[in-house]
Specification:
Blueprint lengths: L18 E5 L7 H8 L5 E6 L2 H14 L1 H4 L3 H19 L7 E5 L7 H8 L5 E5 L2 H14 L13 H4 L2 H8 L7 H12 L6 E5 H6 L1 H12 L47 H4 L6 H4 L4
Parallel strand pairs: 1-3, 1-4, 2-3, 4-5
Helix pairs in contact: 2-4
Length: 286
């Protein structure tokens, strides 16, 4: 199996074999915008937020805990488990006709050895990122627009922590939170030497120079460049944002241009000093 192809997937029927790559990074960093730009290319299918990574992990966990599988000879159990996981990936995308698939989940950066074992090749993950303080400011901006809505993960029994700006920022950046969890997964992947599997796409670069940014993604994936229309981006991926308790969370503008947001207008210096900027991935950008 060569590095560009997904050995678990079937051919689309065209001369080009199907490729499976991954989209994962930080929230509020342009992943929905990038997905819909890429889908202007007829060779691409990009999922909305996908449950595939979590599903594969759940099957692995159940397999290792179920007494029926534990009673099997170890080598046979491991062989069959791998076969099942590979067929799950194949079946998940059986209805897709496009030869290039990007599955979107922020869990992929934390599952690199796992998915590489399933695919028998190195993973390629496109990771939209943004200054963490700007990410937190973006959530705060959404909250201020909708003061009657609670944030994703805001529990009823911890209202005090969520009642202040600093408290909300700390909660969003905690270990098990929408911002903190993917950030720590990226940090762990880099510490473990998987930086060559990840192509970081800085939100500011994407919105300021989308053509060059997209060419960098194509180079990383080993694909020919494509001429995109950055003035008329049609939103094709949709998600029910009520599930995330944040209407507008995955809504994009049709024209790619700098957001013009100043995170310091929402996050004052005495709060911002507790959170990182872009330094984690700055030295790993291609």
């Amino acid at each position: 199996m060569n590095e560009g192809n997904d050995g678990a997937s079937q051919s689309t029927g065209s001369a080009q074999p199907r490729q499976l790559h991954f989209l994962g990074g930080l929230p509020r960093s342009g992943s929905t915008l990038l997905s819909n730009i890429l889908m202007q290319n007829p060779a691409f299918h990009v999922t909305a937020t996908s449950g595939l990574e979590a599903l594969l992990q759940d099957v692995r966990l159940h397999w290792d805990q179920a007494v029926e599988f534990r009673a099997m000879p170890t080598e046979e159990s491991e062989r069959v488990k791998l076969q099942v996981l590979r067929h799950m990936v194949q079946g998940y995308f059986a209805h897709i006709e496009q030869p290039v698939i990007l599955d979107k989940s922020r869990g992929w950066t934390g599952s690199i050895p796992f998915i590489e074992k399933i695919l028998s090749r190195k993973a390629r993950i496109v990771a939209p990122v943004r200054d963490v303080r700007a990410v937190l400011a973006s959530f705060e901006k959404l909250r201020q627009r909708q003061p009657l809505k609670s944030l994703q993960g805001e529990p009823k029994d911890d209202a005090v922590s969520w009642s202040s700006l600093e408290g909300r920022c700390r909660k969003l950046f905690s270990d098990t939170s929408p911002v903190g969890t993917p950030y720590r997964r990226i940090r762990d992947a880099l510490r473990r030497g998987f930086g060559d599997r990840i192509h970081f796409v800085d939100f500011d670069d994407l919105t300021a120079d989308p053509a060059q940014t997209l060419n960098g993604i194509y180079d990383f994936l080993g694909l020919p460049h494509f001429e995109h229309d950055f003035d008329h981006v049609e939103q094709k991926t949709t998600e029910n944002d009520d599930v995330f308790q944040m209407p507008g969370l995955h809504t994009i503008r049709s024209k790619v241009e700098p957001a013009g947001d100043d995170w310091s207008a929402y996050i004052p210096p005495e709060v911002a000093r507790h959170f990182p900027g872009k330094e984690l991935w700055a030295s790993h950008k291609r």
